[in-house]
Amino acid sequence: MALDINIRNKKATFEYQILDKYTAGLKLLGTEIKSIRQGKANIGDSFCNFINGELYVRNMDISEYSHGSFYNHAAKRDRKLLLNKKELKKLLIKGEDKGLTIIPLRIFINERGFAKMDIALAQGKKMFDKRETLKERDVKREMDKAMKG
Fold first, then answer.
1. pLDDT per position as a tens digit, 46-68
2. Are 43 and 60 in contact (CB under 8 A)?
3. Hey, how many other C-beta atoms are within 10 angstroms of the C-beta on 119?
4. Is 94 domain-assigned?
5. pLDDT tens digits for 64-81?
6. Predicted TM-score of the model (pTM)
7. 52: left (phi over 0), alpha (psi -120 to 50) or beta
8. Residue 114 carries which DSSP code?
9. Rounded CA separation 36/111 (Å)
10. Which CATH number is 93's domain given?
């Protein structure tokens, strides 16, 4: 039953250095999960933060469900992330450090049909780090071409 949904945040690895990864459940409405199953979600500019001790993903865009009626959801509302208490406490403590943030990496549907989100504790890269990433990518591409040809 697992659908092949894999919505990625392509900017995440370029903009941030990933320190720690977690998989969290998403608390969604009925029309939101249907839109995700159609692949109509975007996590490009979204981020996570704590509100009253609970972790929420903000600025995540899930398009309105095409067959939804007046029960349709708001596209950019805050959505609660479901983690166990130990993981939440660890993220809360580490998230307070200077320069660290929690970002979503990808949304997928697990084998039981639930929407899950991979999130990461990350540190923002400086401009020279981004240039280094581009150089590494170019070198890898050149090596792959040389191996093929």
1. 888 888 889 998 888 887 776 66
2. yes
3. 27
4. yes
5. 776 666 666 666 788 889
6. 0.77
7. left
8. -
9. 15
10. 2.40.280.10
